[in-house]
Amino acid sequence: MIKKEKILFEKWRKKRIDLIEDGIVDEESYKNSNIKILYLLKEVNDITGVKLKKWTNMI
């Protein structure tokens, strides 16, 4: 899944340079979980170039 995300982000970045990446933070935990929860975050302000899943993993 992470590899597919990376390919998508590379494709999208060609059209949107300031794209802020997000996605699955921990692929193994996601795959092994019976319940999948999706968090939708409000748009990100003033952190251009940040990879959101790395930032959310630090919290």
Question: What's the structural blueprint in terms of helices and strands?
Answer:
Elements: H1 2-15, H2 27-32, H3 52-58
Gap from first CA to last CA: 23 Å
Q: What is the count of helical runs? A: 3
What radius of gyration results from the CA coordinates?
A: 12 Å
How much strand content do the residues show? Answer: under 5%
Give the uncertain stretches in residue-range form: none
Helix/strand order = HHH
Oligomer: single chain
> Could you tell me the number of beta strands?
0
Rough outline: globular
What percentage of residues falls in helices of 4 or more residues?
40-55%
Helix/strand structural class: mainly alpha
> Which whole number gives the mean pLDDT?
78
Largest sheet: none
Based on the model shown, name its key terms.
single chain, 59 residues, mainly alpha, 46% helix
Quick description:
This protein is mainly alpha-helical and 59 residues long. The protein has three helices and no strands.
Explain this structure.
This protein is an all-alpha fold and 59 residues long. It is 46% helix and 0% strand. The chain contains three helices and no strands. The protein starts with a helix and ends with a helix.
